Amino acid sequence: MVQLIQDCLRLLLVSFLLSCSLGSEVLRPRGVSLIKASLYDPARDFSCLDGSGTIPFRNVNDDYCDCRDGSDEPGTSACPNGFFHCSNKGHIPLDVRSSRVNDGICDCCDASDEWASGADCTDQCQEFGRAAREEALRKEEESKKGYSLKLGMIEQGKNMKQERKEKIALIELELQQAESVRAEQETLKLAAEELESAALEQYKEANEAKKAAEDAIKLAASEAEAKEAFGELDTDGDGAVTKQEVQADTTYDTNRDGSVSDDEATSVDDEGEDESLLDDDEENPEDEDDYDPELDNVDEGLLDEPTEVPDVVYDDETQGLVDAANAARSSYQDAQRSVDALKKQLSEEQASLDKDFGPEDEFRVFEGRCFEYTDREYTYKLCPFDTASQIPKNGGGETRLGTWHDWEGEDTGPRGKYSAMKYTNGQGCWNGPNRSTLVHLRCGVENELISAAEPSKCEYVFIFTTPAACDAVEDGSDEHAQHTEL
Ligand code: MAN
Protein backbone atom coordinates (compact mmCIF):
# COMPACT_ATOMS: atom_id res chain seq x y z
CA MET A 1 0.00 0.00 0.00
CA VAL A 2 2.81 2.36 0.93
CA GLN A 3 4.41 1.61 -2.42
CA LEU A 4 1.17 2.40 -4.20
CA ILE A 5 0.83 5.74 -2.46
CA GLN A 6 4.39 6.55 -3.35
CA ASP A 7 3.78 5.64 -6.98
CA CYS A 8 0.72 7.78 -7.07
CA LEU A 9 2.42 10.76 -5.56
CA ARG A 10 5.23 10.36 -8.05
CA LEU A 11 2.75 10.24 -10.92
CA LEU A 12 0.99 13.32 -9.65
CA LEU A 13 4.26 15.05 -9.58
CA VAL A 14 5.20 13.88 -13.03
CA SER A 15 2.17 15.42 -14.53
CA PHE A 16 -0.92 17.03 -13.21
CA LEU A 17 -2.71 15.41 -16.10
CA LEU A 18 -2.09 11.90 -14.87
CA SER A 19 -4.66 10.15 -12.78
CA CYS A 20 -4.43 7.15 -10.57
CA SER A 21 -6.54 5.40 -8.07
CA LEU A 22 -6.30 2.93 -5.31
CA GLY A 23 -8.18 -0.12 -4.20
CA SER A 24 -9.07 -2.80 -6.68
CA GLU A 25 -8.41 -0.42 -9.55
CA VAL A 26 -5.10 -0.80 -11.33
CA LEU A 27 -2.95 2.27 -11.26
CA ARG A 28 -2.70 3.85 -14.70
CA PRO A 29 -2.55 7.26 -16.36
CA ARG A 30 -5.79 9.03 -17.22
CA GLY A 31 -7.51 7.75 -20.34
CA VAL A 32 -5.71 4.38 -20.38
CA SER A 33 -7.72 1.18 -20.44
CA LEU A 34 -7.13 -1.66 -18.05
CA ILE A 35 -5.78 -3.83 -20.85
CA LYS A 36 -3.12 -1.28 -21.77
CA ALA A 37 -2.22 -0.31 -18.21
CA SER A 38 0.90 -2.42 -18.17
CA LEU A 39 2.27 -0.50 -21.15
CA TYR A 40 2.34 2.68 -19.07
CA ASP A 41 4.94 1.93 -16.41
CA PRO A 42 5.92 5.10 -14.47
CA ALA A 43 9.17 3.46 -13.52
CA ARG A 44 10.33 3.42 -17.12
CA ASP A 45 10.48 5.62 -20.15
CA PHE A 46 7.36 5.35 -22.27
CA SER A 47 7.62 3.74 -25.68
CA CYS A 48 5.00 4.96 -28.12
CA LEU A 49 2.63 2.05 -28.82
CA ASP A 50 3.34 2.21 -32.54
CA GLY A 51 7.06 2.21 -31.83
CA SER A 52 7.48 5.71 -33.23
CA GLY A 53 9.61 6.86 -30.30
CA THR A 54 10.45 6.71 -26.61
CA ILE A 55 9.90 9.57 -24.23
CA PRO A 56 10.50 10.13 -20.52
CA PHE A 57 7.43 8.95 -18.62
CA ARG A 58 6.85 12.45 -17.31
CA ASN A 59 5.94 13.49 -20.86
CA VAL A 60 2.92 11.16 -20.86
CA ASN A 61 -0.24 13.23 -20.68
CA ASP A 62 1.78 16.48 -20.61
CA ASP A 63 -0.63 17.96 -23.17
CA TYR A 64 1.99 17.77 -25.89
CA CYS A 65 1.78 15.18 -28.61
CA ASP A 66 5.03 13.20 -28.94
CA CYS A 67 3.96 9.88 -30.46
CA ARG A 68 2.65 9.58 -33.98
CA ASP A 69 -0.20 7.33 -32.83
CA GLY A 70 -1.11 9.71 -30.01
CA SER A 71 -0.49 7.02 -27.41
CA ASP A 72 1.50 9.35 -25.16
CA GLU A 73 -1.58 11.53 -24.63
CA PRO A 74 -4.37 9.14 -23.66
CA GLY A 75 -5.88 11.61 -21.23
CA THR A 76 -5.63 14.90 -23.11
CA SER A 77 -6.80 16.29 -26.42
CA ALA A 78 -3.24 17.05 -27.56
CA CYS A 79 -3.06 14.33 -30.22
CA PRO A 80 -5.68 14.52 -32.99
CA ASN A 81 -5.56 10.76 -33.61
CA GLY A 82 -5.53 9.59 -30.00
CA PHE A 83 -8.23 7.93 -27.94
CA PHE A 84 -9.46 8.48 -24.42
CA HIS A 85 -10.70 5.49 -22.52
CA CYS A 86 -13.64 5.94 -20.14
CA SER A 87 -13.89 3.19 -17.55
CA ASN A 88 -17.57 3.96 -17.03
CA LYS A 89 -17.69 2.01 -13.83
CA GLY A 90 -21.07 0.37 -13.47
CA HIS A 91 -21.68 0.50 -17.20
CA ILE A 92 -19.84 -0.28 -20.43
CA PRO A 93 -16.32 1.10 -20.97
CA LEU A 94 -15.87 3.30 -23.98
CA ASP A 95 -13.07 4.72 -26.15
CA VAL A 96 -13.75 8.24 -27.40
CA ARG A 97 -11.62 10.35 -29.72
CA SER A 98 -9.10 12.55 -27.96
CA SER A 99 -10.77 15.63 -29.46
CA ARG A 100 -13.76 14.88 -27.21
CA VAL A 101 -11.67 15.33 -24.07
CA ASN A 102 -12.63 18.49 -22.25
CA ASP A 103 -14.70 19.77 -25.15
CA GLY A 104 -17.59 20.66 -22.85
CA ILE A 105 -19.74 17.72 -23.95
CA CYS A 106 -20.21 14.73 -21.70
CA ASP A 107 -19.31 11.67 -23.74
CA CYS A 108 -18.45 9.23 -20.99
CA CYS A 109 -21.23 8.34 -18.58
CA ASP A 110 -18.72 8.57 -15.74
CA ALA A 111 -17.92 12.18 -16.83
CA SER A 112 -14.21 11.31 -16.95
CA ASP A 113 -13.69 12.92 -20.36
CA GLU A 114 -14.60 16.33 -18.99
CA TRP A 115 -12.15 16.35 -16.11
CA ALA A 116 -11.03 19.95 -16.61
CA SER A 117 -13.62 21.65 -18.80
CA GLY A 118 -15.94 22.62 -16.04
CA ALA A 119 -18.83 21.04 -17.98
CA ASP A 120 -21.74 20.03 -15.83
CA CYS A 121 -21.23 16.29 -16.16
CA THR A 122 -22.21 13.82 -13.50
CA ASP A 123 -21.46 10.15 -13.23
CA GLN A 124 -24.56 8.43 -14.57
CA CYS A 125 -22.98 5.06 -15.19
CA GLN A 126 -24.73 3.26 -12.35
CA GLU A 127 -28.10 4.43 -13.62
CA PHE A 128 -27.31 3.71 -17.26
CA GLY A 129 -25.74 0.43 -16.33
CA ARG A 130 -28.83 -0.65 -14.41
CA ALA A 131 -31.08 0.26 -17.35
CA ALA A 132 -28.74 -1.51 -19.75
CA ARG A 133 -28.61 -4.57 -17.54
CA GLU A 134 -32.38 -4.62 -17.30
CA GLU A 135 -32.62 -4.30 -21.08
CA ALA A 136 -30.00 -7.01 -21.55
CA LEU A 137 -31.91 -9.22 -19.16
CA ARG A 138 -35.14 -8.54 -21.00
CA LYS A 139 -33.41 -9.40 -24.27
CA GLU A 140 -31.92 -12.49 -22.77
CA GLU A 141 -35.32 -13.57 -21.54
CA GLU A 142 -36.76 -12.83 -24.95
CA SER A 143 -34.00 -14.80 -26.62
CA LYS A 144 -34.56 -17.73 -24.29
CA LYS A 145 -38.28 -17.67 -24.92
CA GLY A 146 -37.66 -17.14 -28.64
CA TYR A 147 -35.23 -20.01 -28.76
CA SER A 148 -37.67 -22.36 -27.11
CA LEU A 149 -40.27 -21.27 -29.67
CA LYS A 150 -37.67 -21.83 -32.36
CA LEU A 151 -37.27 -25.42 -31.23
CA GLY A 152 -40.98 -25.84 -31.87
CA MET A 153 -40.61 -24.25 -35.29
CA ILE A 154 -37.73 -26.58 -36.09
CA GLU A 155 -39.87 -29.56 -35.18
CA GLN A 156 -42.77 -28.23 -37.18
CA GLY A 157 -40.46 -27.55 -40.13
CA LYS A 158 -39.05 -31.04 -40.01
CA ASN A 159 -42.52 -32.54 -39.83
CA MET A 160 -43.59 -30.44 -42.79
CA LYS A 161 -40.53 -31.60 -44.68
CA GLN A 162 -41.30 -35.21 -43.87
CA GLU A 163 -44.92 -34.74 -44.95
CA ARG A 164 -43.72 -33.20 -48.18
CA LYS A 165 -41.39 -36.13 -48.79
CA GLU A 166 -44.25 -38.54 -48.21
CA LYS A 167 -46.47 -36.52 -50.51
CA ILE A 168 -43.79 -36.61 -53.18
CA ALA A 169 -43.45 -40.36 -52.83
CA LEU A 170 -47.21 -40.66 -53.24
CA ILE A 171 -47.25 -38.43 -56.30
CA GLU A 172 -44.38 -40.42 -57.79
CA LEU A 173 -46.41 -43.56 -57.32
CA GLU A 174 -49.49 -41.94 -58.83
CA LEU A 175 -47.36 -40.74 -61.70
CA GLN A 176 -46.06 -44.23 -62.35
CA GLN A 177 -49.60 -45.52 -62.41
CA ALA A 178 -50.75 -42.67 -64.62
CA GLU A 179 -47.88 -43.35 -67.00
CA SER A 180 -48.77 -46.99 -67.27
CA VAL A 181 -52.44 -46.08 -67.84
CA ARG A 182 -51.26 -43.71 -70.53
CA ALA A 183 -49.17 -46.47 -72.13
CA GLU A 184 -52.19 -48.79 -72.10
CA GLN A 185 -54.38 -46.10 -73.56
CA GLU A 186 -51.81 -45.42 -76.20
CA THR A 187 -51.75 -49.08 -77.21
CA LEU A 188 -55.55 -49.15 -77.32
CA LYS A 189 -55.59 -45.93 -79.30
CA LEU A 190 -53.08 -47.21 -81.84
CA ALA A 191 -55.02 -50.43 -82.28
CA ALA A 192 -58.33 -48.59 -82.66
CA GLU A 193 -56.76 -46.15 -85.09
CA GLU A 194 -55.36 -48.97 -87.16
CA LEU A 195 -58.82 -50.53 -87.44
CA GLU A 196 -60.31 -47.13 -88.11
CA SER A 197 -57.91 -46.25 -90.90
CA ALA A 198 -58.35 -49.66 -92.56
CA ALA A 199 -62.13 -49.26 -92.40
CA LEU A 200 -61.94 -45.72 -93.72
CA GLU A 201 -59.70 -46.82 -96.58
CA GLN A 202 -62.13 -49.57 -97.39
CA TYR A 203 -65.02 -47.18 -97.13
CA LYS A 204 -63.24 -44.69 -99.38
CA GLU A 205 -62.55 -47.30 -102.01
CA ALA A 206 -66.10 -48.63 -101.91
CA ASN A 207 -67.46 -45.12 -102.05
CA GLU A 208 -65.33 -44.21 -105.02
CA ALA A 209 -66.39 -47.33 -106.87
CA LYS A 210 -70.02 -46.62 -106.10
CA LYS A 211 -69.71 -43.04 -107.29
CA ALA A 212 -67.99 -44.12 -110.48
CA ALA A 213 -70.81 -46.58 -111.18
CA GLU A 214 -73.44 -43.94 -110.48
CA ASP A 215 -71.67 -41.48 -112.74
CA ALA A 216 -71.52 -44.05 -115.51
CA ILE A 217 -75.24 -44.75 -115.15
CA LYS A 218 -76.04 -41.05 -115.18
CA LEU A 219 -73.93 -40.51 -118.25
CA ALA A 220 -75.55 -43.40 -120.09
CA ALA A 221 -79.02 -42.14 -119.20
CA SER A 222 -78.35 -38.62 -120.41
CA GLU A 223 -76.79 -39.85 -123.59
CA ALA A 224 -79.87 -41.94 -124.25
CA GLU A 225 -82.12 -38.97 -123.54
CA ALA A 226 -80.10 -36.77 -125.84
CA LYS A 227 -80.25 -39.38 -128.56
CA GLU A 228 -83.99 -39.67 -128.20
CA ALA A 229 -84.51 -35.91 -128.38
CA PHE A 230 -82.23 -35.72 -131.38
CA GLY A 231 -84.15 -38.49 -133.07
CA GLU A 232 -87.40 -36.64 -132.48
CA LEU A 233 -86.06 -33.54 -134.23
CA ASP A 234 -84.25 -35.35 -137.00
CA THR A 235 -87.52 -36.19 -138.66
CA ASP A 236 -85.95 -37.19 -141.93
CA GLY A 237 -83.58 -39.43 -140.04
CA ASP A 238 -80.54 -38.23 -141.99
CA GLY A 239 -78.46 -37.93 -138.83
CA ALA A 240 -78.54 -34.11 -138.86
CA VAL A 241 -81.07 -31.62 -137.50
CA THR A 242 -81.75 -28.75 -139.87
CA LYS A 243 -83.32 -25.41 -139.03
CA GLN A 244 -86.38 -26.52 -140.89
CA GLU A 245 -86.68 -29.58 -138.75
CA VAL A 246 -86.44 -27.44 -135.62
CA GLN A 247 -89.03 -25.04 -137.04
CA ALA A 248 -91.32 -27.98 -137.57
CA ASP A 249 -91.25 -28.73 -133.83
CA THR A 250 -93.82 -26.49 -132.08
CA THR A 251 -91.99 -26.94 -128.80
CA TYR A 252 -89.74 -24.14 -130.03
CA ASP A 253 -92.61 -21.77 -130.79
CA THR A 254 -91.86 -19.82 -127.66
CA ASN A 255 -94.08 -16.86 -128.49
CA ARG A 256 -96.96 -19.21 -129.35
CA ASP A 257 -97.71 -17.54 -132.65
CA GLY A 258 -98.25 -20.83 -134.40
CA SER A 259 -94.87 -21.06 -136.10
CA VAL A 260 -91.19 -21.37 -135.16
CA SER A 261 -89.44 -18.32 -136.52
CA ASP A 262 -85.79 -18.23 -137.58
CA ASP A 263 -84.98 -16.42 -134.38
CA GLU A 264 -86.83 -18.94 -132.27
CA ALA A 265 -85.10 -21.75 -134.06
CA THR A 266 -81.66 -20.18 -133.57
CA SER A 267 -82.44 -19.04 -130.01
CA VAL A 268 -82.45 -22.64 -129.04
CA ASP A 269 -78.73 -22.13 -128.98
CA ASP A 270 -78.96 -18.94 -126.83
CA GLU A 271 -81.24 -20.59 -124.31
CA GLY A 272 -78.65 -23.25 -124.10
CA GLU A 273 -81.20 -26.00 -123.92
CA ASP A 274 -81.10 -27.90 -127.11
CA GLU A 275 -78.19 -26.39 -128.94
CA SER A 276 -76.50 -29.71 -129.18
CA LEU A 277 -79.47 -31.05 -130.98
CA LEU A 278 -78.91 -28.76 -133.91
CA ASP A 279 -76.71 -29.77 -136.74
CA ASP A 280 -73.45 -28.53 -135.37
CA ASP A 281 -71.84 -28.12 -138.71
CA GLU A 282 -74.55 -25.83 -139.95
CA GLU A 283 -75.50 -23.81 -136.91
CA ASN A 284 -72.87 -23.87 -134.17
CA PRO A 285 -69.79 -25.56 -135.40
CA GLU A 286 -67.64 -23.71 -132.84
CA ASP A 287 -69.65 -25.01 -129.86
CA GLU A 288 -68.93 -28.61 -130.53
CA ASP A 289 -66.60 -29.00 -127.57
CA ASP A 290 -69.01 -27.35 -125.13
CA TYR A 291 -71.58 -30.08 -125.26
CA ASP A 292 -72.19 -31.55 -121.87
CA PRO A 293 -74.99 -34.03 -121.96
CA GLU A 294 -75.17 -34.09 -118.18
CA LEU A 295 -76.10 -30.42 -118.00
CA ASP A 296 -79.22 -31.19 -119.98
CA ASN A 297 -80.56 -33.20 -117.13
CA VAL A 298 -79.81 -30.70 -114.38
CA ASP A 299 -82.79 -28.95 -112.95
CA GLU A 300 -81.75 -25.30 -113.30
CA GLY A 301 -83.46 -24.37 -110.07
CA LEU A 302 -81.11 -26.63 -108.20
CA LEU A 303 -78.08 -24.75 -109.47
CA ASP A 304 -79.13 -21.74 -107.41
CA GLU A 305 -79.31 -23.77 -104.21
CA PRO A 306 -76.33 -23.34 -101.83
CA THR A 307 -74.03 -26.28 -102.06
CA GLU A 308 -74.47 -28.36 -99.04
CA VAL A 309 -71.67 -30.58 -97.93
CA PRO A 310 -73.50 -33.45 -96.42
CA ASP A 311 -72.04 -35.08 -93.25
CA VAL A 312 -70.23 -38.18 -94.10
CA VAL A 313 -72.45 -41.02 -93.23
CA TYR A 314 -70.54 -44.21 -92.86
CA ASP A 315 -71.96 -47.62 -92.81
CA ASP A 316 -72.62 -48.90 -89.32
CA GLU A 317 -69.52 -50.99 -89.11
CA THR A 318 -67.17 -48.15 -90.21
CA GLN A 319 -68.97 -45.68 -87.95
CA GLY A 320 -68.54 -48.07 -85.05
CA LEU A 321 -64.79 -48.22 -85.65
CA VAL A 322 -64.54 -44.43 -86.02
CA ASP A 323 -66.45 -44.01 -82.73
CA ALA A 324 -64.21 -46.53 -81.03
CA ALA A 325 -61.08 -44.73 -82.27
CA ASN A 326 -62.48 -41.37 -81.11
CA ALA A 327 -63.19 -42.80 -77.69
CA ALA A 328 -59.67 -44.30 -77.54
CA ARG A 329 -58.14 -40.96 -78.55
CA SER A 330 -60.11 -39.14 -75.91
CA SER A 331 -59.13 -41.67 -73.21
CA TYR A 332 -55.50 -41.34 -74.23
CA GLN A 333 -55.72 -37.55 -74.02
CA ASP A 334 -57.25 -37.82 -70.54
CA ALA A 335 -54.44 -40.13 -69.49
CA GLN A 336 -51.86 -37.72 -70.91
CA ARG A 337 -53.47 -34.83 -69.06
CA SER A 338 -53.30 -36.77 -65.78
CA VAL A 339 -49.60 -37.45 -66.36
CA ASP A 340 -48.93 -33.76 -67.11
CA ALA A 341 -50.83 -32.58 -64.03
CA LEU A 342 -48.97 -35.01 -61.77
CA LYS A 343 -45.61 -34.00 -63.25
CA LYS A 344 -46.39 -30.35 -62.60
CA GLN A 345 -47.46 -31.11 -59.04
CA LEU A 346 -44.33 -33.17 -58.51
CA SER A 347 -42.00 -30.44 -59.72
CA GLU A 348 -43.72 -27.87 -57.47
CA GLU A 349 -43.49 -30.14 -54.46
CA GLN A 350 -39.89 -30.98 -55.26
CA ALA A 351 -38.98 -27.30 -55.63
CA SER A 352 -40.52 -26.60 -52.26
CA LEU A 353 -38.70 -29.54 -50.68
CA ASP A 354 -35.38 -28.36 -52.07
CA LYS A 355 -35.83 -24.75 -50.95
CA ASP A 356 -33.42 -23.67 -48.22
CA PHE A 357 -35.66 -23.03 -45.22
CA GLY A 358 -32.76 -22.51 -42.82
CA PRO A 359 -30.13 -24.80 -41.33
CA GLU A 360 -32.74 -26.68 -39.35
CA ASP A 361 -35.82 -26.04 -41.47
CA GLU A 362 -36.90 -23.50 -38.87
CA PHE A 363 -38.25 -21.13 -41.54
CA ARG A 364 -40.31 -23.74 -43.39
CA VAL A 365 -43.37 -22.82 -41.32
CA PHE A 366 -43.51 -19.51 -43.20
CA GLU A 367 -44.22 -21.10 -46.54
CA GLY A 368 -47.56 -19.83 -47.79
CA ARG A 369 -47.88 -17.20 -45.03
CA CYS A 370 -47.78 -13.42 -45.33
CA PHE A 371 -47.10 -10.58 -42.87
CA GLU A 372 -47.96 -6.89 -43.13
CA TYR A 373 -46.64 -3.62 -41.81
CA THR A 374 -48.36 -0.28 -42.40
CA ASP A 375 -46.70 3.12 -42.29
CA ARG A 376 -48.13 6.52 -43.24
CA GLU A 377 -48.19 5.85 -46.97
CA TYR A 378 -48.12 2.13 -47.64
CA THR A 379 -48.98 -1.28 -46.38
CA TYR A 380 -45.94 -3.47 -46.93
CA LYS A 381 -46.42 -7.17 -47.33
CA LEU A 382 -43.90 -9.93 -46.89
CA CYS A 383 -44.75 -13.46 -47.98
CA PRO A 384 -41.54 -15.24 -46.98
CA PHE A 385 -39.91 -17.30 -49.73
CA ASP A 386 -42.35 -15.81 -52.21
CA THR A 387 -42.75 -12.05 -52.60
CA ALA A 388 -42.40 -8.63 -51.00
CA SER A 389 -44.87 -5.95 -52.03
CA GLN A 390 -46.25 -2.52 -51.32
CA ILE A 391 -49.88 -1.33 -51.44
CA PRO A 392 -50.60 2.42 -51.31
CA LYS A 393 -53.00 3.27 -48.48
CA ASN A 394 -54.91 5.78 -50.56
CA GLY A 395 -55.77 3.28 -53.28
CA GLY A 396 -53.89 1.91 -56.21
CA GLY A 397 -52.49 -1.43 -57.15
CA GLU A 398 -49.98 -3.62 -55.42
CA THR A 399 -46.36 -3.01 -56.42
CA ARG A 400 -44.05 -6.01 -56.41
CA LEU A 401 -40.91 -5.18 -54.47
CA GLY A 402 -39.17 -8.43 -55.33
CA THR A 403 -39.52 -12.18 -55.45
CA TRP A 404 -37.59 -14.63 -53.30
CA HIS A 405 -33.97 -14.76 -54.34
CA ASP A 406 -31.80 -16.17 -51.58
CA TRP A 407 -30.39 -15.78 -48.10
CA GLU A 408 -28.13 -12.78 -47.99
CA GLY A 409 -27.13 -12.07 -44.42
CA GLU A 410 -23.67 -10.79 -43.67
CA ASP A 411 -23.76 -11.66 -40.01
CA THR A 412 -20.49 -12.85 -38.63
CA GLY A 413 -22.42 -14.53 -35.83
CA PRO A 414 -23.83 -18.04 -35.78
CA ARG A 415 -26.67 -17.24 -38.15
CA GLY A 416 -24.41 -15.99 -40.94
CA LYS A 417 -26.30 -15.71 -44.22
CA TYR A 418 -29.53 -16.76 -42.50
CA SER A 419 -29.74 -13.36 -40.84
CA ALA A 420 -31.23 -11.69 -43.93
CA MET A 421 -33.34 -12.55 -46.96
CA LYS A 422 -33.14 -11.00 -50.38
CA TYR A 423 -36.07 -10.46 -52.74
CA THR A 424 -35.08 -9.28 -56.22
CA ASN A 425 -36.44 -8.48 -59.63
CA GLY A 426 -39.47 -6.54 -58.48
CA GLN A 427 -41.33 -4.06 -60.67
CA GLY A 428 -39.12 -1.70 -62.67
CA CYS A 429 -38.52 1.64 -61.05
CA TRP A 430 -38.87 4.76 -63.15
CA ASN A 431 -35.33 5.95 -63.85
CA GLY A 432 -34.00 3.39 -61.43
CA PRO A 433 -33.29 -0.28 -60.84
CA ASN A 434 -35.86 -3.03 -60.58
CA ARG A 435 -37.25 -2.92 -57.08
CA SER A 436 -35.59 -5.18 -54.52
CA THR A 437 -35.96 -5.83 -50.80
CA LEU A 438 -33.58 -6.91 -48.08
CA VAL A 439 -35.28 -8.41 -45.03
CA HIS A 440 -33.27 -8.36 -41.82
CA LEU A 441 -34.31 -11.08 -39.40
CA ARG A 442 -34.21 -10.33 -35.71
CA CYS A 443 -34.82 -12.55 -32.77
CA GLY A 444 -38.22 -11.95 -31.23
CA VAL A 445 -40.99 -13.96 -29.67
CA GLU A 446 -43.48 -12.89 -32.32
CA ASN A 447 -43.39 -13.46 -36.06
CA GLU A 448 -43.86 -9.86 -37.04
CA LEU A 449 -42.90 -7.42 -39.76
CA ILE A 450 -41.90 -4.49 -37.58
CA SER A 451 -40.55 -1.99 -40.07
CA ALA A 452 -40.19 -1.15 -43.73
CA ALA A 453 -38.14 1.63 -45.27
CA GLU A 454 -36.80 2.75 -48.61
CA PRO A 455 -33.28 4.03 -47.81
CA SER A 456 -32.49 4.45 -51.48
CA LYS A 457 -34.91 4.68 -54.35
CA CYS A 458 -36.70 1.41 -55.02
CA GLU A 459 -34.41 -0.46 -52.62
CA TYR A 460 -36.40 -1.49 -49.59
CA VAL A 461 -35.31 -2.74 -46.20
CA PHE A 462 -37.69 -4.65 -43.93
CA ILE A 463 -37.15 -5.85 -40.39
CA PHE A 464 -38.90 -9.05 -39.45
CA THR A 465 -38.79 -10.49 -35.95
CA THR A 466 -39.15 -14.19 -35.43
CA PRO A 467 -38.18 -16.86 -32.93
CA ALA A 468 -36.52 -18.62 -35.86
CA ALA A 469 -33.79 -15.97 -35.67
CA CYS A 470 -33.04 -16.60 -31.98
CA ASP A 471 -29.85 -18.33 -30.97
CA ALA A 472 -29.38 -20.55 -27.98
CA VAL A 473 -28.59 -18.42 -24.94
CA GLU A 474 -25.92 -19.63 -22.59
CA ASP A 475 -26.63 -18.85 -18.97
CA GLY A 476 -24.55 -15.98 -17.65
CA SER A 477 -23.82 -14.69 -21.09
CA ASP A 478 -24.74 -11.19 -20.05
CA GLU A 479 -22.58 -9.14 -22.37
CA HIS A 480 -22.77 -6.17 -20.14
CA ALA A 481 -21.30 -8.06 -17.21
CA GLN A 482 -18.46 -9.26 -19.40
CA HIS A 483 -17.65 -5.82 -20.62
CA THR A 484 -17.66 -4.13 -17.28
CA GLU A 485 -14.06 -3.60 -16.25
CA LEU A 486 -14.47 -3.03 -12.63
C1 MAN B 1 -43.77 4.32 -56.07
C2 MAN B 1 -43.33 3.57 -54.84
C3 MAN B 1 -42.13 4.22 -54.19
C4 MAN B 1 -41.04 4.45 -55.19
C5 MAN B 1 -41.57 5.18 -56.41
C6 MAN B 1 -40.49 5.28 -57.47
O1 MAN B 1 -44.29 5.55 -55.70
O2 MAN B 1 -43.01 2.28 -55.23
O3 MAN B 1 -41.67 3.42 -53.12
O4 MAN B 1 -39.99 5.21 -54.64
O5 MAN B 1 -42.68 4.50 -56.94
O6 MAN B 1 -40.92 5.97 -58.57
Explain what the structure shows.
- There is one protein chain.
- This protein has 486 residues and is an alpha+beta fold.
- Helices cover 39% and strands 14% of the residues.
- The chain has eight helices and twelve strands.
- The protein has helices at 2-14, 125-233, 243-247, 262-271, 293-296, 300-304, 316-354, 479-483; strands spanning 46-47, 54-55, 83-86, 94-97, 371-374, 378-383, 387-392, 399-407, 420-424, 436-443, 448-456, 459-466.
- An eight-stranded mixed β-sheet has the order 5-6-7-8-9-10-12-11. Strands 1-2 form a two-stranded antiparallel ribbon.
- Strand 3 and strand 4 (94-97) form a beta hairpin.
- Helix 2 runs antiparallel to helix 7.
- It is elongated and about 165 Å long.
- The model is unreliable at 7-24, 270-307 and 478-486 (pLDDT under 50).
- Keywords: Calcium, Coiled coil, Disulfide bond, Endoplasmic reticulum, Signal.
- Residues 221-256 form the EF-hand domain.
- Residues 260-304 have a biased composition (Acidic residues).
- This is Glucosidase 2 subunit beta.
Concise structural overview:
The protein has 486 residues and is α+β, with helices and mostly antiparallel strands. 39% of the residues lie in helices and 14% in strands. The protein has an eight-stranded mixed sheet. It has a two-stranded antiparallel ribbon with strand order 1-2.
